[in-house]
Amino acid sequence: MALGASHRLQDGIDAVETMTRFTLAVLALASGVYTYLGVRSILDGSPTATFFAAMIYSAAVSVAIYSFWTYLARFYPHVTSVAARTALLGIMALGCAMIIAMASWLNAAALAGSAALEQHLAETLEDYTGDLDRAHQNALAAQSLLPDIQRTQERFERLADQERETGALTGTTGAGSVVQLLSQMASQLTELENGINTSRERVTSLFDEGRTHLATMRTLVSAPGAIDPRADQFAAEVVGLTGVITSLEQTSIAPSVKRAAEDLSLGFIAPVADGREADLVNRQDQVMETIRSSVAAQSKVLSQAADQILAREPVAERRFVPLSSAEAVLRYASDFIPSWAGAISIDLLPAVLIFMLSVAHGALRRQEQRLPFAERITAAELLDAIEVQRALQARGIDIEAAVASAEAAAPSKAAEVADETEPSNIASFDMTGKAPRKGPQT
Questions:
Q1: Same domain membership, residue 73 and residue 46
Q2: Range of the domain at 136
């Protein structure tokens, strides 16, 4: 039964030899096709030159992969020494690294290049969306000052009306110097309020324009069809959006608010008291001094608030960098692990077949070593041995004496050979350790 198992194992190895060659050829061809697609995506030049360059490179890759795995399939299963197997494993590892470098990443570019470019555009879109939001927030930050300015302006107007109608501040009704000063301060604050409102309209218009660019970019990312034309149009939209973000950064009213706040205090010009009586003049001077102090305090508050707005971090200038499909696959490799696994598996799957053959050959050698010589010899070898025996008898040679002498000398001879040589899988014609040939199954 052991001999039959060895024969069946040998038959299986012989049967899959053609399939192994076919598999290696198909895998090498598949790798060459995807390598061609990957090379075409990164080459520039005329269509004819690009076609031939990609074709030649992919053909070289297919031949190299087929030759490499064919050599290993021929040699590795039959090498038995540890040193030789270790050397071949090192060569296999080096070859696998070279195959990944020259073909697998291009295969991944062909398999996931468009998806990787869409990933790049999507992340770029997300970055620009954040930039537009921050620029919009910075531009609208001065709007938070508007309630304070309105309250102060309304207070000055109310005091002016009260002074004009009831003399609430000086005790004398009429439109005198105090009313004139209060009206002047209210007018300046009204101008500042109008400036902020005008700025808000400009910011809103720019923000709407930026959102239009973002909507177009979002459509380009998810639209069907070839990725290259969409990437070009996406880059054009990025240019427009960058201009909008820059305009929003320059539209901020905060610097103008700070200057206006300082002008309220530094440019304060109080009119001369116009009262006809000395007592009224004194009261007007006191009220105008109080107004000066109030204006200075309000100016300080607005200036500090404007400084906080100006201290906000501006939006950093961002530059859109177009990528080829191969570059995008490398940059976003962690997002396309299945594609990378498939691309590498096409090139390295033959290693699994080689290890399977090695296991089968190793099992066959172990089974054959346990068989006695009588079960390993074939019918043809038996007939040859009978012919040799007859020839020796015809010459009058004593076969039994020759065999006994050979058996006596065999141990010492075997010891000398073991010391000088290392184990090998090459067939030996010594009767004590002959490797079997295929014989009839049992």
A1: yes
A2: 115-324
